[in-house]
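User: I'm writing a short report section on ligand binding and want a predicted complex to refer to. Could you take this sequence and NAP and write out the structure as tokens? A short remark afterwards would be nice.
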Amino acid sequence: MEKYIANALRYENGMQYERCGRSGVLLPKVSLGFWHNFGGNDPYERSKEITRYAFDHGITHFDLANNYGPPYGSAEETLGMLMEEDFRPYRDELFISTKAGYDMWPGPYGNWGSRKYLLASLDQSLRRMHLDYVDLFYSHRFDPATPIDETLQALVDIVRAGKALYVGISRWPLEATRTAFRYLREHDVPCLIYQGKLNMLNREPQQEGILDLCRESGVGFISFSPLAQGLLTDRYLNGIPEDSRMSKGKFLRKDMLTEELIVQLRSWNAEAQAHGETLAEMALRWTLEQPGVTSVLVGASSTEQLQKNMKCLNPKI
Ligand SMILES: NC(=O)c1ccc[n+]([C@@H]2O[C@H](COP(=O)([O-])OP(=O)(O)OC[C@H]3O[C@@H](n4cnc5c(N)ncnc54)[C@H](OP(=O)(O)O)[C@@H]3O)[C@@H](O)[C@H]2O)c1
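Assistant: Sure. The structure tokens for the complex follow:
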């Protein structure tokens, strides 16, 4: 591929930016996740094309985790190669996050929420991504077996050490989230953002009170899997395509696609069409409209999908 020069109009291409809670940070309303499609088993040139398209259209936020791939770590390695080849000159225009919390390496120190694991994992992530620091580091899940102060103090110390500019938490239950927001604020490292799953098929963060707590606390909220891994698109309306996540992977199981769900998806699809939009656009717009939501974190297996998804902000994109 030819040498990359970012589109001079990247901030005039229709992207909108939203303040993340009560912080100084603006995030694009559509952010790009590296969970699928950026691993060592995926075509690198395609990952590169999607990432270039994203940045050229104002998507400044890329979200990763230590174990994204497969194999584990390989999505971060892909980002490391992209930094070397394309994005080094634009480092200060990018907001890059990673996480630790799920199984990453064997033995008692490669999982959950100990200080030992979180600090070692972030050092590994920085090496794989060829970065000196990340903009945002998350505890990827709450660890009920580790004292909560140990996990939270590790986050504070990571910021003090200059390895992350901000911290966030993902998938923490409500009471632990409340404790985390208070602890981090009292230690002068306020939680920037909560990452949770909110979409038209899953409203738990609203039902459990997470979104209200984020709003009251001045913490942003970013929705992962806002398309329910592709269910909230036209992908599965007429069967299961061979190249789809449901056919290939283990995270979107075929038994999730019940008759009842298909009826619901077709009905929403008809509603979207009646308004002159796609189901994906409608689903992303719905999530962005929920009070307290800062950004939707989409995945894409092609540039075309990403382009379609950005139309939720502006049909002309
Ligand atoms: N914190 C956490 O625990 C957690 C958990 C999950 C995800 N995340 C984050 O959230 C990000 C997004 O998650 P996700 O990939 O599940 O998001 P998603 O946007 O709900 O689903 C993305 C998938 O939907 C399909 N798709 C997307 N746009 C489409 C379109 N316009 N038309 C048809 N199909 C379309 C593609 O699947 P096909 O492969 O079938 O084309 C794509 O890979 C992840 O990368 C990660 O950064 C975080």
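A remark for your report: The first helix runs from residue 44 to 56. The chain has eleven helices and ten strands.
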